[in-house]
Write a structure and sequence with these properties.
The complex is a heterodimer of chains A (665) and B (494). Chain A is mostly helical and 665 residues long. Chain A has helices at residues 12-27, 38-61, 96-119, 126-145, 149-167, 174-205, 213-216, 238-254, 263-266, 272-280, 284-297, 303-326, 330-350, 354-382, 393-396, 398-412, 418-433, 441-466, 484-499, 507-514, 529-553, 567-575, 580-625, 633-662, and strands spanning 67-76, 86-94, 222-223, 226-227. Helices cover 68% and strands 3% of the residues of chain A. The longest helix of chain A is centred in the C-terminal third of the chain and has 46 residues, at 580-625. Chain B is mainly alpha-helical. Chain B has a domain at 282-494. Chain B contains 19 helices and 2 strands. Chain B starts with 7 loop residues before the first helix and ends with a helix. The chains are: A mainly alpha (665), B mainly alpha (494). At the A-B interface, strand 1, helix 5, helix 6, helix 23 and helix 24 of A face helix 6, helix 8, helix 11, helix 13 and helix 15 of B.
């Protein structure tokens, strides 16, 4: 069967959850029996998953095909450099990378939706939850399938606002509404940079390309079966360097890269299911996906931009991992690990291996969703997120503990779990560039050290929560295994976390990663001698991390830093998140607001004060004029007529005189 | 039936005028007469769309740029011809559509007005009549009459139905806009006499003004810019706006922000930019500077406001600054974006002011810090304020997004890195709306009176209409853009 006939129907994939959004949004309150629309959301996201996966399989079976379907959204007629007018289009593009993302988003989305039916059962506001979660999926699928930059940005913003509402789902809690605000505003800074980047790309390429240039074609990514802007077109143009940096800024906002990372740990205020979706398949994935799209469809990046991407990614990888090491909140540790892992993806894109970054995004989505759902299962039963109150859960929650263990092994990069293949591929990719770019060395080392930190912090969580005899806090509710609607998604994700890394060795699947001509790739991993050495070192590091975690935290142990140790100050710095958040709060809330208050003072007392002073002087003048205020309508009429005559005299006699002086009309 | 033969504009002016008079005279039935007039007005706008000869394949014989065009001799002097000339192109058609929508939304929203309802609805209709007249007039005298005719009802709306300090606010509004009007009138008359146009008609001025050279068109342009700019309003001539909004009743704020500010933008496009395009390119640094100043000042001042209405008022200054910027760019993309943005701002600011009004009489205050968590008591009101705020900060799928996107693209196109100023403005705009939402809508309930009820039906319907428009045109912006670009905007420059 030829699945490529489905490519033209790709628009249905985002439309199905959008339908769920509308149905639940309107009738959700009356759907009590269907879990307030939960089952409708499951059904429609399931349908979207079937269609999405079929389309992805179709793309694998007809490798390197680009199928674009687009419609004009609006068109502005010709002006300035836009010789044939500016078209703004919406459409769908099915290509290797969107096919891969379709799998990630629809599968994880569906599983999270299913899990929610169990997890959210007792919550209030379920219609709102399922409607927003469906819209969230729609928005992310829109980003994935977008065939031009404007549409990409449009859905990108929708992703942002959906996450805003979902992070602030428990809006009565001040911390939740504050976290939602923070997420929106910090990513907004990135969005605005992205917007500037878009403008630059628009104007640089407006006239370039077939059929009257990019602008006239709606800024489409592809034309026929080739990229509208060929890979490598950016060369070393200064303008495109700025554009690339702006794109990086946008991606850093969405993908929580330093220094726009502050919002993601606080975003844990939302339900755990939302965290799973944000961290695995939507929102943060959008940033990395943007960088990949830029590598393929926007002519690639200039060398300065590539270095900036490497620096941001490499630094963030390490920076976030250090904060994960000390945190005591199970969700926050996993959140920092997301930031850190996203750093690996960004690093790979910067090294010129965009598809390797995408490969890591693919495997990471499954094991990160798994970790969050397993953490959610714990929170669901014992109602705490504090690691130091947990313990001994492996006995009570056998399946959950296995699921979490698989996720932790995959995250640590232990073979043959999924994370091993993709993370080592990232390290190998960067390593291959060190000869040509010695300036990448520090970031390569940071990324390598992070392997150790990653294994340590995630197994610290695992041992604190699951090993030992009993919970440390006896007042917690009795732990029990969670219902099947929550277990099944975890089991499926655990399966993916084991094998997803190996998919690329299947030729048709692997073709998704080799389908872009002109772009460096080493997916599937080649495993030459160098790679084997790198892998050996990284697995050793990861193993050391696990052992250290066992020694310090295993079997119910709790490690206390010796009193007076200088490590205390480091620990406090890490717990204070390097004071970056405090700096944001200071600049945003104190700095900006003070400026605004000062401006308000100026506005009231200087600008408006001048007006009032003017008015007072007029009032004293008008006292002398009051004598002509007779109150008789006929007098006023006479004044009006006199005034009009005066205007005409002015215009007829004085004006021509002035005109002759100035040489006008 | 061929609607293009119908003199639809004079007919509409007539029905609006009759409706206004009847409303004034009909006592307690006034609101029904006002509603009927609004519905008829919308139907007539529909006919304008149907008969609009600017569509491809149709052409009007008199002035090709105008889809509907009627001209009747009015005042004939030996040396000057004044005609009753009306016409519409895509730009005015969009703003007329906005007038129709805001008229019916205001009538519905204020359905239960108890303080002299006949006078109230009559003045609302009169404001809309005046605005409609401004948008269709193609003769200077006619234009000026309608322009002034808008001020009078707004003066009474603020001065009679307004808040405690209403007299001061009404007077300030009147003096400001009246001084601006006089400068504008002198500018317009001077335009006629200097260019040597044979009549007060737009078309004759349009062709005659091409001959103007030297300092004269510059002075004329700047006087017109000042005249129309105060209505925008431009910083530093903006302080009438927050006062007027704070004191004005909700319906007054809706018309003030939704319609009256658009008169300035429309006037600038119609009578200055289109007529003196080459002069615009000489003086545009001034316009850009003023636009940037308004954008930044409006955004920063919004951030510091405690009064919900003042905050929205300052955000209007920010948005109209973007409109001014887009107009000043003097490109087809910029002009299209400016008109679209005026429509968007008309709908969104009207929605927000209605939300603020309902908020005020539900919670007894407009002070942002003293009320919180209203989502738990009045979820519908909270949702409507939320839609308005998100639309205003430029969220996609809502109406402002395509307009702001096009405006900023045009800004990059014309001014490159200066686009950073409005872009930073976007961050600040997001900040004050999101912050307001955090404080007022979310969090634990605070300052909520025990008798607070959710939106009354009439007010909910009025706001719902506008929210629906914000969504519909946000998803399908081509419905508007196609009409705007039907005007040979590029033709004006060619």
């Amino acid at each position: 069967m030829d699945l490529s006939i489905l490519f033209g129907w790709a628009f249905l994939v985002p439309l199905l959850p959008a339908l769920a959004f509308v149905i639940i949004g309107i009738w959700g309150q009356r759907l009590g029996r269907l879990e307030h629309g939960g089952w409708i959301a499951v059904l429609l996201s399931g349908a979207a998953m079937v269609l999405g996966v079929l389309i992805a399989v179709g793309e694998m079976l007809s490798p390197n095909s680009y199928t674009d379907v687009s419609y004009t959204w609006f068109h502005v007629s010709a002006s300035g450099p836009f010789a044939n007018g500016v078209s703004f289009v919406v459409g769908t593009l099915v290509d290797p990378i969107s096919a891969l993302m379709l799998i990630v988003v629809t599968v994880v989305g569906f599983l999270v939706m299913l899990y929610s039916v169990g997890y959210m059962h007792h919550d209030e506001g379920l219609p709102r939850y399922y409607a927003l979660l469906s819209l969230f999926l729609t928005a992310m699928l829109g980003v994935v399938l977008a065939d031009n930059l404007l549409e990409f940005f449009l859905f990108w913003e929708l992703v942002g606002v959906c996450s805003y509402f979902l992070i602030g789902f428990y809006w009565r809690k001040p911390s939740a509404s504050s976290a939602a605000k923070e997420a929106f505003l910090v990513t907004r800074i990135g969005d605005v940079m992205f917007l500037l980047g878009i403008f630059i790309y628009f104007s640089v390429y407006a006239m370039t390309g077939p059929n009257g240039g990019w602008a006239a074609n709606g800024f489409l990514f592809v034309h026929g079966s080739t990229s509208f802007i060929p890979i490598g077109a950016s060369g070393n143009s200064t303008l495109l360097t700025v554009a690339g940096l702006m794109l990086l800024g946008g991606a850093a906002g969405k993908s929580a890269q330093f220094p726009l990372d502050v919002w993601l740990p606080d975003a844990m205020e939302g339900p755990t299911t939302v965290s799973a979706l944000i961290h695995a398949a939507t929102m943060v994935a959008a940033g990395v996906y943007l960088l990949v799209v830029g590598s393929i469809f926007l002519g690639g990046y200039t060398s300065i931009v590539l270095f900036a991407i490497v620096a941001v990614g490499g630094f963030t990888t390490f920076y976030a991992a250090t904060m994960a090491v000390v945190n005591t909140d199970i969700k926050r540790v996993i959140a920092y690990s997301t930031i850190s892992q996203l750093g690996y993806m960004v690093l790979a894109v910067g090294a010129g291996f965009a598809l390797v970054g995408l490969y890591h995004l693919f495997t990471h989505a499954f094991f990160k969703a798994l970790l969050f759902l397993a953490a959610g299962a714990i929170i669901h039963t014992i109602v705490t997120q504090d690691l130091f109150r947990m313990g001994g859960l492996a006995k009570k929650m056998r399946y959950t503990s296995i699921a979490f263990l698989i996720g932790a092994l995959a995250l640590s990069g232990i073979p043959p779990f999924a994370g091993f293949w993709s993370k080592d591929d990232v390290l190998a990719s960067v390593y291959s560039q060190l000869g040509a770019h010695p300036e990448y060395w520090p970031f390569f080392i940071l990324a390598f050290v992070t392997v150790f930190l990653t294994a340590y912090y995630i197994f610290r969580v695992y041992f604190l929560a699951f090993s030992g005899e009993r919970t440390r806090d006896a007042s917690l509710p009795e732990a029990h295994e969670v219902p099947w609607v929550m277990l099944v998604p975890m089991m499926v994700l655990a399966g993916f976390a084991v094998v997803a890394g190996l998919f690329v060795f299947v030729p048709s699947f692997g073709s998704l990663f080799t389908g872009v001509p002109g772009l460096a790739t080493n997916v599937p991993p080649s495993y030459g001698p160098t790679d084997l050495v790198l892998s050996a070192i990284s697995v050793t590091l990861a193993g050391a991390g696990i052992v250290l975690a066992w020694v310090l935290w295993g079997n119910g142990r709790v490690y206390e830093l010796p009193a007076g140790s200088p490590a205390h100050s480091i620990r406090n710095l890490l717990l204070a998140r390097y004071h970056v958040k405090a700096a944001y709060d200071w600049v945003g809330m104190v700095g900006m607001y003070t400026v605004a208050r000062a401006a308000d003072f100026f506005d009231r007392f200087v600008i408006d004060g001048a007006v009032k002073g003017f008015e007072r002087s007029f009032r004293s003048m008008s006292d002398s004029m009051r004598r002509i205020q007779t109150g008789l309508v006929s007098d006023y009429a006479a004044y009006v007529v006199a005034g009009i005559i005066a205007v005409f005299v002015l215009l007829l006699f004085v004006a021509p005189y002035l005109a002759s002086v100035f040489g006008g009309g | 039936m061929d609607f293009s033969t119908l003199p639809i504009i004079p007919i509409t002016l007539g029905t609006l005028a009759v409706g206004t008079v009847l409303t004034f005279a009909s006592g307690r039935w006034a609101r029904w007469v006002a509603l009927a007039t609004s519905v008829v007005f919308l139907l007539e706008i529909g006919l304008m769309f149907l008969g609009y000869t600017g569509w491809p394949g149709r052409s009007s014989t008199l002035v090709p740029q105008f889809g509907e065009y009627q001209s009747y001799p009015w005042i004939s002097l030996s040396w000057l011809q004044i005609n009753f000339t009306v016409g519409i192109d895509g730009i005015s058609l969009i703003l007329i559509l906005l007038t129709g929508f805001l008229q019916i939304a205001t009538v519905v929203y204020t359905w239960n007005e108890t303080k002299r309802p006949a006078a109230w609805f009559g003045l609302v209709l009169m404001t809309c009549l005046g605005s409609f007249g401004v948008f269709v007039s193609l003769d200077i005298l006619l234009f000026f009459l309608f322009w002034e005719a808008v001020l009078v009802p707004m003066f009474f709306i603020i001065g009679y139905w307004g808040g405690p300090n209403r007299r001061y606010a009404a007077l300030k509004f009147f003096v400001y806009t009246h001084v601006a009007s006089i400068v504008m009138l002198i500018g317009l008359l001077a335009l006629v006499f200097y260019s040597g146009a044979s009549s007060f008609d737009f078309s004759s001025i349009y062709s005659a003004a091409r001959g103007l050279t030297g300092i004269v068109p510059v002075v004329l342009f700047l006087s017109l810019f000042f005249g129309f700019g105060v209505k925008f309003p431009i910083v530093p001539f903006h302080t009438w706006l927050p006062d007027a909004h704070v004191e004005a009743p909700t319906g007054g704020s809706v018309l003030l922000a939704g319609l009256l500010l658009k008169l300035g933008g429309y006037g600038l496009i119609r009578w200055a930019v289109i007529i003196l395009p080459t002069t615009l390119t000489q003086v545009d640094p001034i316009l850009f500077f003023v636009a940037f100043l308004s954008i930044v000042w409006g955004a920063v001042l919004s951030l510091s406001q405690r009064d919900l209405k003042r905050m929205i008022a300052y955000s209007s200054i920010n948005h109209m600054g973007i409109v001014l910027l887009a107009i000043s760019l003097n490109s087809a993309l910029g002009l299209t974006a400016a008109v679209l943005l005026m429509f968007a701002h008309g709908v969104v600011s009207a929605l927000l002011f209605m939300g603020a009004g309902t908020f005020h009489h539900t919670y007894g205050t407009r002070d942002i810090p003293s009320v919180g968590g209203i989502n738990s008591r009045t979820p519908i009101l909270a949702s409507l304020i939320m839609i308005g705020s998100l639309a205003s900060l430029g969220l996609p799928a809502l109406i402002s997004f395509p307009a702001e996107f096009a405006a900023l693209l045009a800004t990059w196109d014309g001014l490159t890195y200066l686009v950073l100023i409005p872009l930073i403005g976007l961050v600040v705009t997001a900040a004050f709306y999101i912050w307001m939402m955090q404080r007022v809508l979310f969090g634990p309930p605070k300052g909520i009176p025990s008798d607070a009820h959710d939106v009354p039906p009439a007010e909910g319907l009025g706001m719902g209409m506008l929210a629906a428009l914000a969504v519909i045109f946000g998803v399908l912006p081509f419905l508007l853009v196609n009409v705007i670009t039907m005007s040979p905007i590029t033709g004006w420059h060619g």
